Amino acid sequence: MKLKWIIFDGDGVLFDTEKLYVLAWKSFLPSYNINLASDDFEEGVGVEDTLFLQKISEKIKKVLNIYILTSKKLNILPENIIAFEDSETGIKSAKSTGIFCVGIFYYTVN
Q1: DSSP string covering the chain
Q2: Residue 19 placed within a domain
Q3: How far from the centroid of its chain's Cα atoms is residue 1's Cα?
Q4: What's the pTM?
Q5: Which residues does the chain have with pLDDT short of 50?
Q6: CA dist., res. 49 & res. 25, Å (int)
Q7: Which domain holds residue 93?
Q8: Rounded (10°) angle between helices 66-74 and 88-96
Q9: Is 92 within 8 Å of 66 (Cβ atoms)?
């Protein structure tokens, strides 16, 4: 492996951004003529974007694989990228594209 890029999952690894995601989806999706009800967004709170998109896929008709897209846009082969993820879905997504993934899990000590 010749490391050329590192990807950090933003929500959960670097920041707690649940409320910001809802605002982003509400502003982004209408530009593609996709209008969701409040209930649709409630299903997406606390879950990975890929799971949220899969749940509403009937309305969207495509689910983007962020790791493939990132690799292509950077013009870097997946095997030259390391991803840091905090969810099983994110880890599976990164690994399925050939990206080496480091799983980060948090626990509290009493």
Answers
A1: ----EEEE-TBTTTB--HHHHHHHHHHHGGGGT----HHHHHHHTTS-HHHHHHHTHHHH-----HHHHHHHHHT--GGGEEEEESSHHHHHHHHHTT-EEEE-------
A2: yes
A3: 24
A4: 0.56
A5: 60-61, 63-64
A6: 10
A7: 5-103
A8: 50
A9: no
CA atoms within 13 A on the CB side of 85: 20
Q: Give per-residue pLDDT as tens, 88-97.
A: 767 878 888 8
Total domains present in the chain: 1
Sheet holding 100-103, edge to edge: 5-8, 81-85, 100-103
Residue 45's pLDDT is 65
Residues 90 and 48 sit within 8 Å (Cβ to Cβ): yes
With respect to residue 44, please indicate whether it lies within any of the assigned structural domains. yes
